[in-house]
Specification:
This protein has about 170 residues and is of the alpha+beta class. The chain has helices at about 1-30, 50-60, 85-95; strands at about 35, 65-70, 75-80, 100-105, 115-120, 125-130, 155, 165.
């Protein structure tokens, strides 16, 4: 009877060991991450080469001093130093990149940077977080503009009237 209990206990220990190693190990094996010495982000395989160059040009602007960066899989964090003009130029350049979504928020950060940029490759989304503790950025001078895509419906807005117009002739019965 003791031999049978010993075998059952040994079997339980072995099964727990197998379960522990099979579930614990792969989680760390699939993550790829590290520090960055220069600005850079990952791109999805279907993101056009010309658009990639446009994003990289915005991230490498001479007015924007790269401080540090890191990545984990498709998620990248970049920290920058610079003044209001520098972050304005970067944010507005990124907003002009095709297929890119850019958001901007303001937060008091304890980090030694004036703004942080977060990039998610599979969504091609960029989030810029401006440090309210920055001594170089004047929030009242921050400007950001983005233009939405062209209308693709049968209605188009006339700049003069701001009302929908169509190609149909006016109704004479009115």
């Amino acid at each position: 009877m003791q031999s049978r209990q010993f075998k059952l206990s040994a079997l339980v220990v072995i099964l727990l060991g197998i379960l522990t190693t099979s579930f614990a190990q792969p989680n760390s094996a699939f993550a790829l991450g590290g520090k960055l010495d220069s600005p850079g982000v990952a791109f999805s395989s279907n993101y056009l080469q010309a658009a990639q160059k446009q994003v990289m040009a915005a991230l490498e602007r001479k007015e924007c001093k790269f401080v540090s960066g890191s990545f984990v899989n498709w998620f990248t964090t970049l920290r920058y130093a610079g003044d209001t003009n520098a972050v304005n130029l970067m944010a507005n350049d990124l907003a002009k990149c095709p297929g890119t979504t850019v958001t901007v928020t303001f937060k008091r950060l304890d980090e030694k940077c004036d703004w942080t940029l977060f990039h998610v490759a599979n969504e091609n989304s960029i989030h810029i977080q401006i440090n309210l503790n920055s001594q170089q950025i004047d929030i009242e001078k921050f400007t950001f503009s983005a233009k939405g895509p062209k209308l693709k419906s049968e209605f188009q807005v006339s700049p003069q009237t701001q009302t929908p117009k169509t190609d149909e002739a006016p109704n004479k019965s009115d």
